[in-house]
Design brief:
Elements (H helix, E strand, L loop, with lengths): L4 E2 L10 H8 L12 H14 L3 E5 L2 H12 L4 E6 L3 H4 L4 H6 L2 E5 L9 H7 L9 E8 L9 H14 L2 E6 L2 H8 L3 H5 L4 E5 L10 E5 L1 H13 L8 H13 L4 H18 L3 E3 L7 E5 L2 H13 L2 E2 L5 E5 L6 H13 L1
Parallel strand pairs: 1-11, 3-4, 3-5, 5-6, 6-7
Antiparallel strand pairs: 2-8, 7-8, 9-10, 10-12
Helix pairs in contact: 1-11, 2-11, 3-10, 12-14
The structure holds pyridoxal-5'-phosphate.
Length: about 325
């Protein structure tokens, strides 16, 4: 089959030759016994990068977020979370289903922050009628948008006043760091825990890490086992992640530049409402009419371009989209 230009997500990337070589030569052991040197290496590496005590490798971001939330919260506790956040909407309700932890949604503002007065008003008083508010959960990037860490410092003050913890779903934290020209550590400083994905823009095939204090990671380690995430010679996967962290972080700037070019060209065509903000990283959204959805998808498919069927169409740039591919995408949109 001819290679498709796949704009559906940055999860579709294939391992690069250098990455495959790193995976082939990775020293491994049984990680359930803490004996996989490559897993230990990536955990230490990411903990140091994010300025936290420890990290724990997980097969997916969903599991990494979940074991984090379960480590922070007890049965009957509650976490405050963005209304369209991944941890609320796209993880099958896992915190409620498996952790007995209730979500309290809050609207995201267009700049990927929360209204802090609203946030404070949602914290429930200590009263037997209410779930106990325990955790505030942010996402960065959120729909590709970065929020500046100054916002999190303000939220942290509220969290501290009420004795709450803060978790960051940083599936695309490195996109945010590259975009903001900050170290990831500066962004996550106000958070107690962070989940990062290796399998999104960073281009590894599998893997996420939960990062936090030694005490939190010990709790999460137990939950990972309960959730079925204890893996054995998983260093093969960690090696891909180490390679990605060493070689494929700075290049995220290219994906951001490609998204900017794509958004600019789409706007110039004047056919659709294009969503692209200054704090956008590697995503562009265009709003289609219902009747445009199917024909657009089919026409693009004929040109070797894959897009999701959806009225709010998300176009994602990544490692496997070159400048040539982008030109082809722009031409195809122009022709429809
Ligand atoms: C992809 C993603 C996750 C984790 O997803 P998995 O597919 O389980 O690895 C979590 N949060 C956000 C914002 C994501 O985009």
């Amino acid at each position: 089959m001819e290679r498709m230009i796949d704009l559906r997500s940055d999860t579709v990337t294939r391992p690069t030759p250098g990455m495959l070589e790193a995976m082939m030569s990775a020293p491994v052991g049984d990680d359930v016994f803490f004996e996989d040197p490559t897993i230990n290496q990536i955990q230490e590496k990411i903990a140091a990068l994010l300025g936290k005590e420890q990290a724990l490798f997980a097969p997916s971001g969903t599991q990494s977020n979940l074991m984090g939330m379960m480590a922070h919260c007890q049965r009957g506790d509650e976490y405050i979370v963005g209304n369209l956040a991944h941890t609320y909407k796209y993880e099958g309700g896992g915190a409620a289903v498996l952790g007995s932890v209730q979500p309290q949604p809050i609207d995201y503002l267009p700049d990927a922050t929360f209204d802090l007065q609203k946030l404070e008003s949602l914290i429930k008083p200590i009263d037997d009628h209410f779930a106990r508010t325990r955790l505030i959960c942010y996402e960065n990037t959120y729909q590709g948008l970065t929020a500046h860490p100054s916002h999190y410092l303000e939220a942290r003050k509220i969290a501290d006043r009420y004795g709450l913890s803060m978790h960051l779903d940083g599936a695309r934290l490195f996109n945010a760091a590259v975009k903001l020209r900050l170290s990831p550590r500066e962004i996550v400083e106000p958070f107690d825990s962070v989940s990062v994905c290796l399998s999104k823009g960073l281009g590894a095939p599998v893997g996420s890490l939960l990062v936090g204090s030694k005490e939190l990671i010990e709790k999460a380690h137990r939950w990972r086992k309960v959730l079925g995430g204890g893996m054995r010679q998983a260093g093969i996967l960690a090696a891909a992640g180490i390679y990605a962290l060493d070689h494929q972080v700075e290049r995220l700037a290219q994906d951001h530049e490609h998204a900017r070019i794509l958004a600019t060209e789409l706007k110039l065509m004047g056919k659709w409402e294009v969503e692209y903000a200054e704090n956008q990283t590697n995503m562009v959204f265009i709003n289609l009419k219902e009747e445009e959805v199917k024909p657009l998808r089919e026409k693009m498919l004929k040109n070797g371009i894959l897009i999701y069927p959806g009225k709010r169409l998300r176009l994602v740039t990544h490692l496997d989209i070159s400048m040539n591919d982008l030109q082809k995408v722009i031409e195809s949109f122009r022709k429809v």
